[in-house]
Design goal:
six-stranded antiparallel beta sheet; 16% strand; two-stranded antiparallel sheet; alpha+beta
Length: 377
């Protein structure tokens, strides 16, 4: 993945200029820089009162109140990470709404020269593990002080919970509800229900049972290829487009599982495990990793144009249900089958989504490579 390229002049809004870090700063030039699914990004070249030339990065999101949550959430996420490991993220300066379009929001940060993407596996794993290890939750609980957004999804993490299982269940359940409204697919509804009720407690409760302590770690929240890079000036790995909260450190590697990401290269997870040992029970690691991949892949399913993750997510949840609650899974699917064969339903048209899936065939895997460039920044 090549670095973003500047192109064309960008007009800087009055409210952005007001919130530049140093009063009296003069805009020399501004350029469109890179791409965003949800708005625009720009590089601002400015002159400080001292005469020094500096660069800023500007993100503008045109999604109304969702844009507000996205910009505010990313600003607070960057602030928290910057406190722990300043060089690992761009320094955040300000956020707010545009003077010319009050329902459009912006985020202003330090400009970092994006080089190779994704970042080097050794350096990325080392720095991500360092963030996880040195961060401290203000209440020693899981959650965050405000809502943050993964892509366009407002995460249900703006609360504080003693139990990681409780927080993850809330957020995953919220994401599932959004997907169920979009997909209208009853088999999907069943595996969602069983995953929440049976699989999540089975895999996450043991992390804090039998005397085990699980540290709430400050996490990136959307760590994939396009949100990591090597800094062209310093040669160090850094990350951006964060949507943080305090959670299980392994959650950040759930997005590395997808073959569409180059972070799925085994060198990334191997190097991460060298820096941060696997949580106990260690034998559950791969199943937890699959569970943690669900929020990312469901988000991809409902918001990324042309996504092929619909069947992948269904198959992944089916795999977990067959392993951890097989009797419940068979009973629910049998009940659905008999409902469709009942006299009341024989004359009813088959829901379009369910019919399409049956025609495509269960377990079908789609080629994911084309989606890499379309993931949320």
């Amino acid at each position: 993945m090549g670095p973003p390229q500047p192109s064309g002049t960008y007009h800087v809004d009055e409210n952005v200029i007001i919130k530049l870090p140093k009063p009296g700063t003069r805009i020399v030039h501004a350029l469109n820089y890179g791409e965003s699914l949800w708005g625009k990004t720009a590089k601002i070249i400015a002159e400080l009162p001292s005469g020094e030339i500096v660069n800023y990065f500007l993100k503008v999101v045109t999604l109304g109140d969702t844009g507000r949550v996205m910009c505010h959430g990313e600003y607070e996420s960057l602030r928290e990470i910057h406190k722990v490991t300043p060089d690992f993220v761009p320094e955040p300066y300000s956020w707010g709404s545009l003077a010319t379009a009050p329902e459009t929001y912006f985020l202003l940060t330090q400009f970092r020269d994006v080089g190779e993407q994704p970042a080097d596996p050794v350096r990325l794993a080392n720095r991500l593990a360092d963030l996880h290890q040195r961060s401290k939750s203000p209440f020693q609980k899981f959650g965050f002080h405000i809502a943050t957004c993964h892509a366009r999804i407002t995460q249900a993490v703006n609360t504080w919970e003693e139990s990681w299982c409780t927080l993850y269940s809330k957020n995953l359940g919220h994401v599932m509800e959004l997907a169920k409204q979009e997909l209208q697919w009853r088999e999907f509804d069943i595996v969602c229900k069983l995953t929440l009720e049976k699989v999540v407690p089975r895999l996450l409760l043991p992390l804090q049972e039998e005397g085990r302590h699980l540290k709430p770690c400050l996490i990136h929240g959307d760590c994939w290829d396009g949100n990591t890079a090597m800094d062209m000036r310093t040669g160090e790995a850094f990350v951006f487009d964060v949507c943080s909260f305090y959670g299980h450190n392994e959650y950040d590697t759930g997005n590395w599982r997808a073959p569409r990401h180059r972070l799925s290269n085994k060198s990334y997870i191997q190097n991460y495990k060298k820096n941060f040992p696997v949580s106990e029970p260690e034998e559950d690691w791969d199943d937890r990793n699959l569970l943690y991949s669900l929020t990312f892949n469901i988000g991809n399913t409902i918001y990324i144009p042309g996504s092929s993750q619909r069947e992948v997510v269904y198959d992944d949840m089916t795999k977990l249900c067959n392993k951890f609650c097989p009797d419940d899974f068979r009973a629910e699917m049998s009940r659905l089958k008999w409902e469709r064969l009942s006299p009341a339903s024989l004359g009813a048209p088959e829901p379009q989504e369910e019919k399409q899936y049956e025609e495509e065939g269960e377990g079908k895997e789609e080629d994911e490579e084309e989606e890499e460039e379309e993931e949320e920044e």
